[in-house]
Design goal:
The protein is of the alpha+beta class. It has one domain: HIT family, subunit A, CATH 3.30.428.70. The protein is built from 8 helices and 16 strands. The strands form 2 sheets. Strands 1-6-2-5-7-8-10-9-14-15-13-12-11 form a 13-stranded mixed β-sheet. Strands 3-4-16 form a 3-stranded mixed β-sheet. Strand 12 and strand 13 form a beta hairpin. Helix 4 crosses helix 8. The longest helix is centred in the last third of the chain and has 19 residues. It is globular and about 50 Å long. Keywords: Cytoplasm, Guanine-nucleotide releasing factor, Hydrolase, Nucleotide-binding, Nucleotidyltransferase, Transferase. GO terms for molecular function: GDP-D-glucose phosphorylase activity; guanyl-nucleotide exchange factor activity; hydrolase activity; nucleotide binding. Pfam families: GDPGP1_C, GDPGP1_N. Belongs to the GDPGP1 family. One of its GO terms (biological process) is glucose metabolic process.
């Protein structure tokens, strides 16, 4: 059950406040600005217990409100010309081979969406003046999401952004349809260090969207070119290649809590899969603590969230800042590669893609250490 509230006077969801031009404070560029606000209910979109049981994607006759809101806002900005190109016109192909990697030709795509950070380390102190979104943010901000006080979700069409809110921002150089950034409202206090609260909020977006095509991505490595916390998300018409490969279950007491841990098999980058049969909150607790441990050890990684927030794939990576070998994004780890030139696109083949993935994969000994750490954390949290 979702409700919509109208405050102030009649306010169009796609209309933005011109007061953006008045807000120049880098510490709080959103002060005094109102936007559509989607509030999550205290009860899950599906199910009715505290563990968020029964939240897996379902086929519904009606589109969820959050799914409709996101797509309508994103498409509105597309019609207004805020996108640098039409991603639906980008040529895409499956690369010949057993893994069916995805190659996309997008000559206008830029991987450096934010101001580049040149320091040769992963975790950087936050500098508000390096976040160029503060300088350009206007109609790119689609709406905000935050925890609500009511049992059911609701949409407030004009509201100040709460301190615990997340900004849903258009990515003007999309990799796929509906490409957005999910950025905590208090990003000017947060480096890119992932915590349980931020991961739960990002996964909650996927739960309430309730669309099996929706994927959320998080990257923690020097190649991310930004020194604050953010997620990305978009829609995929087909599963990513990593979602087709077999997995090997890892047994432990976490299974009693409805959590599955598997090792991804027959894939060039070593990865762990975490899946909740019912208990969403334990899944978030386990994965966020694992990620925090990796961050404390300066281990690069990417995270792919799918199946409406109930499935997470962790791709630990070697830390590299060389010009020849760069850390890969979560969608690249998943098997989707964007090429900026026709020449590179035409030459794309499975062998070279496998080499790129293998180059940033942990060696067996290091991966086993990550696997052991993950199982230890899962065992403690599930007991």
């Amino acid at each position: 059950m979702v409700s919509v509230k109208q405050y102030e006077d009649d306010y169009c969801l796609v209309k933005q406040n011109s007061a953006f031009e008045l807000s120049e404070c880098p510490r709080d560029p959103l002060r005094g600005i109102k936007f559509p606000l989607y509030c999550f209910g205290s009860l899950p979109a599906k199910g009715n217990d505290d563990s968020y049981g029964g939240t897996s994607c379902t086929v519904e006759e009606e589109q969820s409100l959050l799914d409709c809101l996101l797509l309508s806002q994103w498409e509105d900005r597309s019609w207004k010309g805020l996108l640098k190109y039409d991603v639906t016109n980008c040529e895409t192909k499956f690369i010949s081979g057993s893994l069916k990697f995805i190659a996309q030709l997008s000559e206008g795509w830029s991987p450096n969406c934010f101001t580049e950070c040149v320091e040769n380390k992963i975790l950087l102190p936050f500098d508000p003046f390096k976040f160029n979104c503060m300088k350009t943010l206007g109609e790119e901000l689609l709406f905000c999401v935050a925890s609500g006080e009511n049992a059911s979700s609701e949409l407030i069409t004009s509201s100040m952004v709460p301190n615990d809110g997340n900004l849903i921002i258009l990515n003007a150089t999309p990799v796929e349809y509906g490409h957005i950034f999910i950025i905590p409202r208090d990003f000017y206090y947060l480096p890119q260090f992932l915590d349980a609260r931020s991961l739960e909020m990002a996964a909650q977006v996927a739960i309430d969207i309730n669309n099996s095509s929706f994927r959320v991505f998080y990257d923690y490595h020097a190649s991310s070119r930004v020194n604050h916390l953010y997620f990305q998300a978009c829609y995929y018409a087909n599963p990513l290649p990593v979602e087709h490969v077999p997995v090997v279950p890892v047994t432990g007491n976490w299974q009693k809590s409805g959590i599955q841990i598997c090792e991804v098999s027959d894939y060039p980058i070593k990865a762990l899969l975490f899946k909740a049969e019912e208990n969403f909150k334990i899944l978030v607790t386990i994965v966020s603590e694992i990620c925090c441990s990796l961050q404390r050890q300066n281990i690069a990684f990417s995270l792919l969230i799918s199946e409406c927030g109930m499935k997470m794939v962790l791709f630990p990576q070697v830390h590299t800042s060389s010009a020849s070998v760069c850390n890969l994004s979560a969608w690249e780890c998943g098997g989707h590669f964007v090429y900026r030139s026709r020449h590179d696109f035409d030459l794309a083949n499975e062998e070279t893609v496998v080499e790129r993935l293998a180059a940033i994969s942990l060696q067996s000994k290091s991966f086993q250490a990550v696997k052991q750490l993950s199982c230890s954390i899962a065992s403690q949290r599930a007991s």
